[in-house]
């Protein structure tokens, strides 16, 4: 059959609409995170909730704990009910936190609400990238996942801005209204899940439901079920899935933590753990403090500035996906972050002073303050454009099909655990009056960039723009020489191809331009 017959009809809008609908999950929990950061600045909210020992650290910690629980819970639900059903459950759980927030007048209901919201956010963060990886074209898979992160960051700024404008309202309405707006995002996502978003063809094939998988793929591509691209793609996926089952055996917990599967799982976990070990959370809070000293006293304005820098970094990552491989971007990010954090350490040691009475950190002049604020923003930009964006794309694609629904939620669990630990450390330094430790921890985080570089050099392979089938083959068969930046898939007659067992997968023609 001629390769042109295997290509889907030109309806990219259909895939874009499905990806945008799934991305609403990121908008929902991103808006919530931004709104609660703004709410915690309100006098009316502080009067009710911050007279107790919980404080902002406790509120954020409860949310992160809920996110850890949610990412683990999403694993069980997605295996039984599927990706789409898991997102529906996550939406219901997320929306159920709103009544807690609206009726809360004491700390306990507020904490319950944050924990429930965290469960929903953790489920969204685990399943949405997994769904996007399985339903996006190979050439735009990473773009879709990074766009999800852009939606999260943009929604955070929006939530913080809504909280700022509602802060002038009297009494409890100031924090009830920002929280209640979350129901809008949850409602839009539920509508998309019910009427637009199909189930992942991968899951349906794993359950031997080829007819349903063909219908889902037809919906994703916007072509009839009888179109050759649907028929051949389903056949290829089914063939490769059966090959995997024959080669690896049925999925079991015992096999999940052995051999090649364990190596990939540790790679996915490691890239998220090391991402937080590079000090991005520290740069956010440190930059906030420096901007405050530069006469930007409004916390919402500072949040908007830092958020805009992060979004610009993520957009840069999207624009550079074709030109720079994941591996090269991570290596560049590790080197640049190491240099930048050590420069901040040098300035903190020699050009800042600490008030002996209050412990407050002050700079010797305004130029030093501006330099530290600028360096913090540059660090956020570098991190977002490299590790912040690429880590999600890597963890969404490196796992074999039969273990992907297990491994992806587990790696996101590590992401939230690392975020919790990082937030505790940074809060201890900044919110609890330990600014004299800034320089020490700048040096520590700068030193952590060295193991990050080593980790990428030995563990991350080039899998950019490959179908998930080819990504699996690369992860299984290829050795150290295939990790070099210049390596590409070997070609036959100008077309990339690799072999596993007797099955030949050709990246551009024999498999349609789809990530299956």
Automatic annotation (TrEMBL):
Alphabetical list of InterPro entries matching this protein: MFS_dom, MFS_sugar_transport-like, MFS_Sugar_Transporters, MFS_trans_sf, Sugar/inositol_transpt, Sugar_transporter_CS
Keyword presence, Transport: yes
Keyword Ubl conjugation attributed: no
Annotated ranges, domain Major facilitator superfamily (MFS) profile: 18-464
Transmembrane segments: 54-78, 85-103, 115-133, 145-163, 175-197, 265-284, 304-321, 328-350, 370-389, 410-430, 436-460
UniProt-recorded Gene Ontology molecular function terms: carbohydrate:proton symporter activity
Location within or outside the cell: Membrane
Descriptive protein name: High-affinity glucose transporter rgt2
Organism: Ophiostoma piceae (strain UAMH 11346) (Sap stain fungus)
Phylogenetic classification of the source organism: Eukaryota, Fungi, Dikarya, Ascomycota, Pezizomycotina
């Amino acid at each position: 059959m001629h390769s042109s017959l295997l290509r889907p009809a030109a309806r990219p809008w259909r895939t874009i609409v499905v990806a945008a609908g799934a991305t609403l999950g990121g908008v929902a929990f991103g808006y919530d995170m931004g709104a609660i950061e703004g709410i915690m600045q309100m006098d009316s909210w502080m009067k009710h909730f911050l007279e107790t020992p919980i404080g902002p650290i406790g509120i954020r910690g409860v949310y992160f704990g809920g996110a850890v629980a949610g990412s683990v819970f999403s694993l069980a639900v997605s295996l039984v009910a599927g990706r789409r059903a898991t997102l529906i459950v996550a939406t219901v759980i997320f929306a159920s936190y709103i009544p807690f927030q609206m009726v809360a007048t004491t700390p306990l209901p507020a904490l319950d609400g944050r924990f429930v919201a965290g469960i929903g956010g953790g489920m969204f963060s685990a399943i949405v990238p997994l769904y996007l990886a399985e339903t996006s074209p190979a050439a735009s898979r990473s773009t879709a996942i990074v766009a999800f992160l852009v939606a999260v960051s943009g929604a955070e700024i929006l939530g913080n801005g809504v909280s700022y404008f509602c802060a002038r309202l009297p009494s409890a309405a100031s924090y009830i209204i920002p929280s209640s707006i979350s129901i809008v995002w949850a409602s839009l996502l539920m509508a998309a899940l019910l009427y637009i978003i199909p189930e992942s063809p991968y899951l349906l094939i794993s359950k031997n439901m080829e007819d349903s998988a063909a219908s889902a793929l037809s919906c994703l591509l916007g072509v009839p079920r009888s179109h050759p691209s649907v028929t051949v793609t389903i056949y290829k996926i089914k063939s490769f899935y059966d090959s995997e089952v024959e080669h690896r055996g049925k999925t079991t917990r015992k096999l999940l933590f052995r051999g090649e599967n364990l190596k990939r799982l540790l790679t996915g976990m490691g890239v998220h753990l090391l991402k937080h070990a590079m000090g991005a959370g520290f740069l956010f809070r440190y930059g906030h403090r420096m901007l405050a000293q530069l006469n930007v006293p409004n916390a919402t304005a500072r949040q908007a500035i830092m958020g805009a820098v992060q979004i610009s970094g993520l957009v840069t990552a999207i624009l550079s996906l074709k030109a720079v491989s994941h591996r090269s971007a991570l290596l560049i990010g590790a080197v640049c972050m190491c240099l930048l954090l050590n420069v901040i350490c040098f300035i903190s040691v020699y050009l800042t002073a600490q008030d002996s009475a209050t412990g407050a950190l002050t700079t010797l002049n305004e130029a030093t303050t501006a330099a530290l604020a600028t360096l913090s923003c540059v660090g956020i930009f570098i991190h977002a454009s490299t590790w912040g964006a690429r880590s999600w794309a890597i963890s969404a694609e490196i796992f074999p099909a039969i273990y992907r629904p297990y491994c992806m939620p587990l790696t996101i669990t590590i992401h939230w655990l690392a975020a919790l630990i990082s937030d505790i450390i940074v809060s201890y330094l900044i919110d609890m009056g330990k600014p004299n430790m800034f320089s020490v921890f700048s040096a520590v985080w700068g030193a952590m960039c060295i193991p990050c570089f080593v980790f990428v050099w030995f563990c991350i392979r080039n899998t950019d723009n490959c179908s998930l089938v080819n990504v699996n083959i690369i992860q299984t068969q290829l050795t150290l020489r295939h990790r070099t930046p210049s390596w590409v898939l070997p070609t036959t007659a100008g077309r990339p191809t690799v072999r596993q067992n007797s099955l030949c997968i050709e990246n551009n023609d024999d498999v349609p331009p789809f990530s299956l």
